[in-house]
Structure formats: C-alpha cells, structure tokens
Amino acid sequence: MNVNQQPHMASPYGPSQPGYQGYPQAPHGGQHMAGGYPGQYPPYNGPTSAYQPGAPVPGPMCAPPTSGAPPISAPQAYGQYGGGQALNGPPPSAAPTQRPPVSQPYTPAPMNLSTPQSSYSQPFAGPPTSMQQMTNQMAGMQVGPAPPAGTAPGYAMPPNSQPPVSGTYTSTASHPSFPPTSIASPHPAAGDGVPPGPPQSYYGGPPHAQQPFPTSSAPPPAFSTASATPPAAAAPAPAVSQASQAFPGGPPHAQPQPPPQQQQQLPPFSAAGPTPPQQTPFSSGAPQAAPHPASQHLYGGPPPPQGAPQQQQQAGFPRPSPPTSQPSSSTTAAATTNSGFPGGPPQSSHPYPGVTMPQQQHSPFHSAPQLSGPLPPPPAAGGFPPQGSAPGMQGPPLQHPSMSGPPMSQANHVAPGSTQPGMPPPMGPATGGMPGPPTQPGMQGYPPQQNGAFGQMRAPQPGYPGPYPGQHPGQHPGQQNFGAPPQAPASAPPAQKRLDPDSIPSPIQVIEDDRVNKSTEPFTTGVRGQAPPLVTTNFQVKDQGNASPRFVRCTAYNVPCTSDMAKQSQVPLAAIIKPLATLPPDETPPYIVDHGESGPIRCNRCKAYMCPYMQFIEGGRRFQCGFCSCVTEVPPNYFQHLDHTGKRVDCYDRPELSMGSYEFLATVDYCKNNKLPQPPAFIFLIDVSYNAVRSGMVGIVCQELKTLLDYLPRENPDVPSAVRVGFVTYNKVLHFYNVKASLAQPQMMVVSDVADMFVPLLDGFLVNVNESRVVIESLLDQIPEMFADTRETETVFGPVIQAGLEALKAADCAGKLFVFHTSLPIAEAPGKLKNREDKKQVGTDKEKALFQPQVSFYSNLAKECVAQGCCVDLFLFPNQYVDVATLGVVPTSTGGSIYKYTYFQAQSDQERFLHDLRRDVQKPMGFDAVMRVRTSTGIRATDFFGSFYMSNTTDVELAGLDCDKTITVEFRHDDKLSEDTGALMQCAVLYTSCCGQRRLRVHNMAVNCCAQLADLYRNCETDTIINFFAKYAYRSMLNSPTKNVRDILVNQCAQILACYRKNCASPSSAGQLILPECMKLLPVYLNCVLKSDVLHPAADTSLDDRAYLRQLLSCMDASESHVFFYPRLLPLHKMDTESDALPLAIRNSEERLSKGGLYLLETGLNLFLWVGASAQQELLQNVFGTTAFGQIDPNMTCLPELDNPFSKKLRDIISAFRDQRSRYMKLMVVKQDDKLELIFKHFLVEDKNNSGGASYVDFLCHMHKEIRQLLS
C-alpha cells in the first residue's frame, strides 16, 4: 500500500456487517490506477477500533522500481519462493506446467519450530488490530503440498540463468498462458464512452461488473482437501499459491503482459475494518461503491455523483462497463486506465498487499494440497494507510517461459506469478510487492514453517543481482525504506497474478476419479453407512438389506451421535427419497410380497413394517423392533425357526427380511372407506381460446392424443390399460364431451355457469379407450375445426380443475388431469387473476410476495384435489405473464408437474412438447398416495420438501406420485444416538397402482452414528447436500428476501467448512483454505445455486421463469439437480468415433473453449451445440453437411442425419442424454459470437455472469474469508 497515498479515500472501510452485500466483480478492461497499480482491492486499514488512517500525503505516488532482483542474503538451496512475497521488478512470466491427469498425493509440509522466523509476530487467534498486522498476515499464501526445501529463513528468488529484463510494460505482448475466460469479462476503460453494462450485483450489494471482489483482508485461498483442503493465504484472504511456489529458475522478467482482462480477483475481504468505497465488500453496511443508476433497482445504493471530479471517482466510485468475453485489445498507459475504478484507481494502490493471483498453471487440485504461510505485511508509515502493491501483485517472480514448470511434487501448488492473458499489469510504487518486515519467529498459534516453507524469508538465489534500487543491501525486497524519498521509477512494474483455476478443486476431476474407481464393481448395499458412488457415475446396485441409492440418498452416511455435534457441524441431515424410481434393465425391481388377508407384519407400538432390522428372539416366536425396541408376537402363519446365528432359516427367501426395498399387497384395511379402489382415470382439458388455436397447440394435442391413447400406463404390456379417459375444452366457458361407445358422433355439452361448476353428464364422460375408439377419434378430429375461427381471448382456470375434480368424484376414482393452458385467467370466474408482474420489486423485500399465490382459492382447491386423489399436470404455452406462482399451486400440491413452453411455435417446439406429453402419459405412477417416514429412537423426520400436501406433521399426502418425483426429508435429533446401533429410517408409501391395486412400497436405510466430527466429514454426499440446500433456499424465498436467503446459505456453508477446519484438519496457517475431501466441491456447487436464475436472476429472467424453476427443483433428485446447477460440457471435436466412450468433459468456463472446437453443453433442460468460428471444415461437414461456418443455420433444433460415423455418434449421444432426463432437452445451435452465445455463456457457471454472479475463483476466496471470520 502506498505510503504516499494521494487523494485519501474517505473512511476507506465501513464497519463490516453481517452477511455480504455483493461480490464486486473482478475489474475488467484494464483500467489502471493513476498511481500505476490496478486497484482491485482497497487498502485494508485494520479493524475500525484499532486503526484510523491519517490524512494522505498530497505528493505523487511512489514511482515503480527501476528494475532489479531481490536482495541477496544467503545462498538458497531450493528454488521455492517464500510465501507470497511480491517482487519489485519487471513482471515475471512463466510457462505453465501441464496439469497431470490425476491429482497428486498431498504431503503436508513439516513444521520446524526452531527455525528463526521473520521479525514480526502475529497471533492467529483474533483479528489483526492494525494495518501492519493485517498486511503482515496477508503475505505468504501458498498453494501446494510439496514439502518445503530447507533453507535459511528469507525469501529467495528462484535461480535463473537469465538476467532480469527491465522494460516498459506493453500491453500487446502475448503471454504463454491460457485462453481468456469470461469469468471476469474485460471491460473497456471507464472513460471511453462505452455505455454501462447490465447491473452486476452479487448478494444484494451494488457491485459492478468491473469491481473487484471485495476483500478486506484475505488473500486468495490456499488449497488443500482431504483432510486438508485447498490452500489459502495465511493472511486474511485466501492466498492460493501465493508466491510460494518453487520455480526452478527465473528472475523476474519484464515480459510484456497481455491486456488486463479477465482476471479472477480474489475477493477483497472486509474482515473487520471499514471498507473503502471503491469496492463493494461483502459487508452490509460499509460505504459501498455507488451503483450505476441503471443498476439501481438491483442493488439499491445511491447513484454515483454524476460528473464527479476525477479525484472523487478515484476514491472509489466504479463505473460499470459492458462485459465482453474477448480480451481488451490494448491497455496503453497504466495511468490512463484503472482496473475497477472508473476514472482512476483509489489512491491506495494496492489494498491487499499479498493477495496474489497465482498464475494459471495446470496443476490438478488435489485432495490435499495446502496453501499456507503468513504474508509479510507492508509497513505503515506514520499515520498513512500502508502503501499497497497492485492487487495480486504478490509473489515471486515467474520463471522465464523457457524454463520448465514447478517440480511434479508440487503439482498442487498454484503457480505463483504468471498473469493471465489479459491481466492488468500492476504499475506502481517503488516497493512493489508486499512491503514490510519479514514475519517473526514463533508466530503465535501455529508453529513456524520449516526451511523456507511458505511465508518465510529466503536466501538469495544465484542469478539475481543485488537489492532493488533504494533498498539497503540487507533489506527484504518487499520492505520499505521508511522515511526515505521515493525511488526513481522503474521501467516495468511487477505483474499481477490471478488465482489459478487449475489449482482449485475441479468437479470434472472428482467426477472422473469416482467413475474410474467405482463404476467397475457393483455397489452392494449390505454395509451400513457406506456412501454410494456419485450421481454422475454409472454403476450397478445389488440390494443386500439397504435401499438402493436410486431410491434413497442421504446427505451424510455417518450421523452425529448428539444434537450438539450436529449443530456444531451444521451439516444438514436429510434424505432424498424417490419412492417409485425406475431402475436400469440390469437391476431387479422391488419384489411384491403378499401376506394374504392378514396383511403385512408390523411392530405393535411404532407400526414399522417387517424389515431386515427386526431381531427375532425366543426361537423365532417374537421379534424386537429395530426402531422402537418393542417386542411383538410373531403370528403363527409367519413363524419360522432360527439358525445358529439367530437368523430365520427362510431369511433369504423373504424379501422383507433380506432386502432394502420391497412391496406388500395392501388389504382392504389400507383402502379409503375400507373398499378396494377403482382403476384411475385421465382427463384431458384443452384451452381453445384464440392464442391456443393460433399457436397450433390445439391441433397438435388433438392429433397426438389419437395415437397416445394406445400407450396409457399398464402393468402388463400384453393387457389393455384399465385407465379410463375423458375430454373437456374451455375458454370462458367449459365444453364437456360424451364419447360413449354406442354413439355415432360425440356430443358436446356447454357449462357457462363457471361460478358453480358441475359435470353435466356421468355416463359417457369417462370411457374405456378400446370400446370408444371410433367416437374419440372423431371428437379429436372435430375439435380443431370447431374452434378454428374463435375470437375468444379470455380464459378461466379454477373452474377447469373443479370440473375435472367433480368428474373424478362422480366416478369415485382417483386420477390425473392434463391441463393445456395459454394465458392469465382474467375472465370472471373463481380463481380469476390479475397481472402483478412488477420488475421494480425484484431484489427488494417485496419480491417474496411475487412467489406466493395471489389468491387463496387455489390452495383450497388443491386440498380438495388431494382428498380425492386428483393429480394435476399443467402444460403452459404463455406469450406473456401467466402467474406461474399461482397457477402452479394445484400441480405442486397434488404431486403433479408443470411444463412450460414460452412463445410456443409448432415448428420448433412441437418435438419437445410431444416428447414431454408422451412421457407424462406413459410413465409409471401411483395415485392417492400417503407416505410416512419412521426412524429409530434418537432422530425424527421434521421437515419435508417436494410436491405434496400435508394435513398433519407426519403424513405426506400425494394425489399422484410418479417415477420422477422425490420427497426430501430433513431429520433432527431428539435424543442421543449410539455408535453400536446406528440410525434407521423406513419410508413406507401406500398407493394405488395404475391397474387399481392398493400397495405398500417400503424402503429401509441404516446409517452409522459417529462421536467424532472427522467421521461425519469423511462420509458425506455433496450432491445430496447441494440438492437439499437448493430446495431449502428456494422454499425460504417465500418468506425472506432473496439476499437474506443467499446470505444464510453462504453462512451455513462457511460454518460447515470452518467446523471441519477447526476440529478435523491438522494445524496449519490460518491463510490456508482446507476442505474435507468429500466436500471439496461444496463451494463451487453452492456458488452455482447462489447464481441460479431463481436466487440471482439475470435482467431478462421473467418472474414466471423463476417461479417455474423454483417449483421444478422442488421435486428433482440429486442427479437432475447436479446437471441443472453444474452443466455437462463435452468437447465433441475430441470424440473418438471408434469407441463407445464419451469425450472427457471439461470445466464450465469460457477459457476452456477453443475457437476451433465443437462443444455440447447439457443443462438438464436444454442442449447447446457451440460451434467455434475456426472449426475445421471436415468437422462442420460431418455434423452440419456444410463446410462453411456462415452457412450453419442457428435456428435448427435437430441435426441432419448424415451418413458418417461422427454424425451418427453425435446424434446417439444427444439421444442418450435425452433419455436420461425426465424432460426433453431442446437442441440449440450456438455459433461463436452469435446473439445466442449470451444464453450459452450464462451456463458456464465457473465464470462470472452478467447479472453479478461471482466466478468460482472469486467465490472460493469469499468463502475463505467467511471461514476465517468464523474461526477468529
């Protein structure tokens, strides 16, 4: 931080507040600060109470160092840099090392308590109390598991055969690194007349697209997972490999750097002190950067003063500029542009000394790499804010591009200094890096690192000239000459580094490792508490006493023994249950057990059903319940002798004694009104208003139903379906049709009194398809003709559902209504709605009302439907707002589904709609269902999520339950659990099958109990946890502002990881971010939930879309929510047409795309085929039948069927993907730089998005800061 700071920022830090207000985005477009450094981070001025900045010196900023290498103090044996020390020389550059295919083993660095440390001691216990301490803490982040080399304390620079080059920074040079990422899309310089971009706010604050991720005190995270996890900075911000990486060789070079573009900022973390206005810290009340007026509605802060003088802007009012994914072409003078601060940077040029962005080196993030090491702090000169180096300027010099990368043993280190292509080169004060005295011996709280481990002073390396200009020979490179005049300007400033995305946990690597390790052997469920393979792995299940993970997945397979332990860890205890899940062909569906008139055997007290957890005693005459320990007599007809182990001799002949899942045939006692049920009925209710007819929907539905009625659900494919059908059309009035087999033509009856709905005919409305086929087909031919010339635009909706319900009541059966509807029901009738869409309420406290139903009518109607077993599926074809939040109440309360086809066009949407309709009609389902979850003593089910209705606290009532629906159950402790017995859960679903048979499906699950937190963290399932968090958050939106919901999620995730760090990880520097092995993807997936359109909508996301996605997610299983939040991205140009294997997926980031490539992105709801502008002609010919990029039709929704192996395999892949999902995914062809590309990029979830969502790197840094705050 500059000692001679120019215009001082008025109270640079506001007090930190609960929750964070927004991720300010990484600066785009290379706006440099006037003083030279890009100001991504504000200077950290310590906690308010301890440090109050004095007035800044009015003079000029220190000039950059002239050039030169770090001081030489002693020979250095090993070329590893000290922790995150920044050099004051020309920007280094390095050739990125190749990322090994799999992660490297992690070996923690040994600690040597006797090694002398630097001269500043920093307790790790509490927050730093002065600027000096803060910056000290900030200096030595390191990523990487390799043991440090022994050396004398001191930061040494890596040896290099080449002398340091000094030269002026030029923005045109290319850098040997990676393609630009869209994570922080570059923005034009603030002053160049580009209109501001879309509002970019994260977490409610007013961040801007080019604002830095607020960090007030934390360096980028160092990472380690497993028992340790990603390394982070010792200082407040997570330093992910701050300089600590060893690069054999290489003085700093003034290699020209690419234009500052998409760098990923580390979050400025405002840990305690006030935050400077220029960045929007994650704290709610600090003075925030004023949002651009256009983005006002998103972030509610005051607009920046218009036409404010340059100096005022420098004090931190960012101006957003439009994001672009291409690197900005040139960044000319450091003084003209400033990164993240319109009109010039805040004068403290490097708020976060020591927060470096490690270069993008290819290093697999391994399960246990650790970053560690305190960063040496910059000194503060009397009363001035400490001088800052450029954000992320830290770190050792990179080796010359010709040098080889870091040793393999350090594969997990983040390469310390290379700038990303497009990173703003820092320019600035004479002491470019982390100025400040070396850290002190014996840091309190953690043993000092041994032998030049991260964060220590290093001896000099051969090949480095003497000390930097203006430095005393023995002075540390980052150390300032207090009181000395500023040094002469240097020719090139140190380069800014960015956190290397390859050094942080990769979802693709984790998915691939699991696939390789767990897809070969069948998963047997006999071992209690065994976590299953990931949802992304194809595996076979053998049921040996616990339910298959296809039916039940738990968040944790080791449950804490006590509620205190559960509260401490904050890991949710929940299960996602999919009772009627379809199984792959190589697995046996649950067996059906018939006990005759006596019915299933149950415990006398808790009514649990017979299962493998019941213990037979007294020679088999009685059994003790595994849930409540009550002893029950065995009925004489069920008696069997025990073998020498105490098991019944017929144990393996009875599914209920040896399997985790099975079905019982229910007796009449389990039926409504004690009488066996009728087969269910399907009623089709078709909107025939003007919009429905004009769009072609009416004709398509009628044509499809003629063939679809042959595929009604049935148990035995050889027997006709027992399901009866009926037909209604409607606009402002309802038309019922008599399709009795004896009629020559169908008869229509109109009910215009919609206020008092009734069914005008009983006989002839619900009919058997085979008997009435001729009449039904005649009707379906006539409907489109009858209403072809309609001019009626208004519709009703409530009476339509009432009509179907009344018909089912009259027939005394359960059933399903298929409603095809187009517009907001504004006609006079019960359930009439008004248009309440109001974009001004989005992001405010009033927003939650928009997700609640407008009127109570539909909630009451849903209750009646559930009582009758009437399930409603809604197909919407809206051209404008239809209030999905209200219309969806009945479907989501009855176990139904909502399908939405906005701007439906017969030509492009017909295929998707018909696939959805066919699957919806044919899929296996149960009717009039009730589900109850029983648990063993000590825990109980307390909360439920999904599409159902509950009239009491224990019974989940579902008018319909199909094979895609899940019910998520949360458990809480009500007593202590025992490690010996574990915890048991039994889910029993009573339902009517499609042939009218009453059945009970039972799923049993036993998990372990643990008294140690480490055991809990060893056996969790991240995909299930994220599924639970998303459902919890989406439901919470009904009662809380979305900002609060996001804050709660981040806080809970931080508590989970902080608890692990505090109680399970081996002691390490506080700057290290440590993640449990099985949760190392929790931050990336959680960020995807936070950025989802529901919680953080883009400007063009409609309220209806958000309500639709909200309701859709409530029933998703973990495999569907996984691809929904983290889409699958395949590089098709790498596909091998000879083998059946898919190409290995790549990470969801724009920097992973190549212009010459062809990529398939699967989101669970859509498929995107992205075509690079430089794709080979042969590739285009094989896929599209044309060699010219310009001739590809971006409107095509299906690929041409070409006679070549590539085309065939690609179409097979698309078909296979669609078969895996419950909804048909429409294919969209996206040409590079085409208008559709914005939509495609929205799903590249590791990048920053246009609506203000943070990139993965930025969010990880933010999480690390939250964890540090909790630990301190």
TrEMBL record:
InterPro entries listed in its UniProt record: ADF-H/Gelsolin-like_dom_sf, Beta-sandwich_Sec23_24, Gelsolin-like_dom, Gelsolin-like_dom_sf, Sec23/24_helical_dom, Sec23/24_helical_dom_sf, Sec23/24_trunk_dom, SEC23_SEC24_subfamily
Keyword tags: Cytoplasmic vesicle, Protein transport, Transport
Residue ranges constituting the Sec23/Sec24 helical domain according to the UniProt record: 1022-1121
Chain intervals with Polar residues compositional bias: 112-122, 129-139, 163-184
Biased composition (Pro residues): 89-103, 249-261
GO biological process: COPII-coated vesicle cargo loading; intracellular protein transport
Domain Zinc finger Sec23/Sec24-type: 600-638
Amino acid composition bias (Low complexity), ranges on this chain: 200-216, 223-248, 283-297, 308-318, 326-337, 381-392, 441-450, 471-480
UniProt similarity note: Belongs to the SEC23/SEC24 family. SEC24 subfamily.
Listed name of the protein: Protein transport protein Sec24C isoform X2
Source species of the chain: Clupea harengus (Atlantic herring)
Gene name in the database record: sec24c
